Amino acid sequence: MNVHVPILKLGEVLIVTVQAALTDAQLIDLRTELADRVGRFRSKGVVLDVSLLDVLDSFASRTLSDIAKVARLRGARAIIVGIQPEAAFAMVQLGLTLEGIDTAVDLDEAMEILGSSQVRGRG
Amino acid sequence: MSVTDPNTAPQTLRDHPGMKDFFSTYEQRVETLNAGLMVTVGRLPSLDALVRRMTPEALAENNRLSMDNMRKAIVHGDWAPLLERQRSDGATYAAMGIPFREWFDLVAAFQSSLIPFLVADYGGKDAVRLGHALTAMNAYVNAAMNNIAEEYLKTKERIIAQQQHAIHELSTPVLKLRDRLLLVPLVGILDTQRARQMTEQLLSAIRDNRAKVVVIDITGVPAVDSKVANHLFQTAAAARLMGAQAVITGLSADVAQALVALGIDVGRLTTIGDLQGGLEEAQRMLGYRVVAVEA
After folding, report:
1. Per CB distance under 8 Å, which residues of A are interface residues toward B?
2. CA distances from residue B78 to A11, A85, B69, B144 in whole angstroms, order as listed
3. How far is Cα A4 from Cα B169, in angstroms, rounded to an integer?
4. What is B9-165's CATH number?
5. Distance (Å, rounded) from C-alpha B112 to C-alpha A42?
6. pTM for this predicted structure
7. CA–CA separation, B18 vs B140, rounded Å?
8. Rounded CA separation B241/B78 (Å)
9. Domain ranges in chain B with CATH number 3.30.750.24
């Protein structure tokens, strides 16, 4: 499958950095690919970094939250990181608040959250 | 007559039948006229102060330059430098705070001292020519005043815009209290524009400081209605999208009752009674524990 977004595997975490605005078809490809890889690598976490995007439309927002839900069903906790101020403001105006989806300010923060939840999981 | 647009305005001045006569009389008597105008300037405090700060050479140079521009415009038909200079002068004088009224006084003095010369030059021979020269003078002066006035207005509007900007900046500071903890103390009425601006500033600050918790204190907001509550919901939701949690503090007893009476569901917001409680909660969320130092 040809996905234009690199999916990096770091230990038990998959890291996706969205480099440019994706078409709807590319977003769906990404969802499918991630759903597959979470199972294949038995990943515990997925981090979606959107800090390079200055706009997230309704389809992208919904797909991101779908990806997070799919990942959760496959056993991984998904965190969306780096939503830019302008994008956040526009999304809220459109009523796209990603209810129930974890967010973090950057990758560091997301790794910290995933790390601590793993520790809790083991303990 | 509108004569301020450099592309179209000079047409009316350029085609004016009396313009060259007006200028020729003015050019011949310029020394006498300028001397008379200096007496008028002496009675106008701001202009007088301005002229006193200039050296005689600078003043002479200034007069020579405006004469040159006038000649270029009226004799050679090139109005651009004259109009440009009137605009930049207008902007400079407005920024210096010279009252616009003084320009009217100066121009009135100019006109009343020039009219006798125009009458002397053309009055005896040709009444039509005199009429043209007089209307040319009026047209010229009106155009100049128009240009200067426009610059005055623009300058004042710019100052007002700057001040509004400054007031808005002052009114919504975003303060960093601890690593990853921001505080926004809101004071005054939260209208849509301010709410939007507060949200934008807060979101940028969240990114720049990697904030995890933001405390929005509304003790100083006099009235909270459904609109303001909605602004707060949106701000909290946008902060959450960026990975920070918003804590709203300072809901007074009146505000709390009003919100409940209005049927607004504040359950979606994390609210804590006062700023102290909010900060304690925020620090707890960040993993801080504040303990008194043993005396």
Report:
1. 80-81, 83-85, 87-89, 91-93, 97-98, 103-106, 108-109
2. 76, 51, 8, 15
3. 42
4. 1.10.490.10
5. 95
6. 0.58
7. 11
8. 60
9. 175-285
From B203, B181, B248, B182, select the one nearest B221 (Cα to Cα): B248
Tokens 């809101």 belong to B186
CA–CA distance, A47 with A63 (Å, rounded to integer) = 14
Mean pLDDT in consecutive groups of 10 residues from the start of chain B, 295 residues: 50 80 91 90 90 88 90 89 88 87 91 92 84 90 89 89 77 87 88 84 93 92 82 90 93 83 80 90 90 83
At B153, which amino acid appears?
A: L
Q: Tell me how long chain B is.
A: 295
Q: How far is B31 from B241, CA to CA, in rounded Å?
A: 73
What is the set of domains in chain A, with CATH numbers? Answer: 7-122 (3.30.750.24)
Q: Give the list of residues 6+ apart from residue B110 with CB closer than 8 angstroms, or none.
A: B33, B37, B141
Cβ atoms B65, B57 nearer than 8 A: no
What the block records as the tokens of A52 is 């390079």
Contact between A103 and B240 using a beta-carbon 8 Å cutoff:
yes
Of A30, A81, A31, A87, the residue nearest A56 (C-alpha): A87
Lookup: tokens for B172: 């919504």
- Three-state DSSP class for residue B55: coil
Question: Is A106 close to B212, i.e. CB distance below 8 A?
Answer: no
